[in-house]
Amino acid sequence: MKPFDIDVLNHVKVELFSLEGNFVIVPHINPDGDAVGSALGLARILKNWGKKATVVSPSGYAEFLKWMVGNEDVLVYPDNKKRSEAAIQSAEMLICIDFNHISRAGGLKKFVENFRGTSVLIDHHPHPEAFAQFVVSHPECSSTAELVYQFAKEIGLKEFVDTAAAEALFCGIMTDTGSFDYNVSDPQTFQTVSELLELGIDQDKIHSLVYDNYSADRMRLMGYCLSECMEVYPEYHAAVMYLSKEVQDRFNFVTGDSESFVNLPLSIKGIHFSTLFTEKGDHVKASFRSKGEFAVNEFARKNFSGGGHRNAAGGELFASFKEALDKYRSLLPEYQEELIRTKTN
User: Fold this and answer.
1) Which CATH number fits domain 216-344: 3.10.310.30, 3.30.450.40, 3.30.70.20, 3.20.20.70?
2) pTM to 2 decimal places
3) Residues in contact with 336: Cβ distance below 8 Å, sequence separation at least 6, in sequence order
4) Which end of the chain lies in a sparser environment, N or C, as judged by fewer CB atoms within 10 Å?
C-alpha cells in the first residue's frame, strides 16, 4: 500500500480530533460485505473513542451481514427517512465509505452534495470523483476495510480497534478478496489480517456466518442457474449467468442470494471472464469478474455505465433483459483477441 497523503491525513486528523458532535457514515447503495464491514468497523472505532457515530445506509443489505456489532443501530434510509435526514443534518462530519462516484449514494446523493460540515471519502476504487472535501483514496488496497484499519492506525486510533471492530473489518477484507482469492498481492493485507487476529477475532466463525448462512431457496436457485441460466463461450474464454425476474420470483429471491454467483464460472477450465446479469425493475444489473490481466472495470465503464477494479466490477443498463444479454453477446467478438492474449499471459 502506498503512503498516505500527509496533507490530507493531517487535515482529516485535525477535524476528527476537534469536532465534538455527531459523525455520520454513509456506505454505497446495496452495500456489500466491504461497505458494511468498513462502515460498522469505523463506527465502532469512533464510538470507542467517545464520539457519536451513526451509519446511514442508502438501502438495505443481505441478512448474512447483519451479525456485526452495531447493525441494530444502522438507519436504512428508505425505511427511516426522517431519522436518516435528521442524523445527516445534525452531523458535523460526513464520512463516505467504499464508493468513488456520488451516484452510488443512491437516495442520499442530495444530502451528500449539500452537506455543510466536513466531508471525507475513504475508498479503494480508482478514479474517485471530487464530491468530498478530503479524499483518502488507495486503489491499490485490497478493500476499503483494510484502508479503514490502516487509516485508524495512522491517525492514532489503533487502541480503539476492539474485537467487534476487528470482526467487521475482517469481514470486509474477506468478502472483497473472495476469501483471499484476488486483490491480495500486497503483503500488507496479510499483515493487517494478522493484527486483526491478534485482537481475538474468530476467522472460521466469521467465514461461516457469511458463507454458511443461506436459505434452501438460494441453494436451489444456484443449482438452477448453473443448469439452465449459464452460457459458456470457450472461444472467448468467457461465460455469462443471468437471473430474470421470473426466476427470482420462482426461488423467492432476497437481497444477497446471488452473492458470489458471478465467481462460479471462473472455476471452469479455460474461463477467465465471467458475467452475471440480474433483472431489476427498470434496469439490468451487471457484475463482472476476471482472472489475469483482463480489465473488467474498463469493460464495465465502456459498455455498462459502471466501473470498479481490474478483476471485479459492476454496471447497469437501462434496457430490457433480452437487450442486455444481446449486447453482451455482441461485444464478445470485439474483445476476443484481448481475452486470448490474457489467457497466454
Assistant:
1) 3.10.310.30
2) 0.89
3) 235, 236
4) C
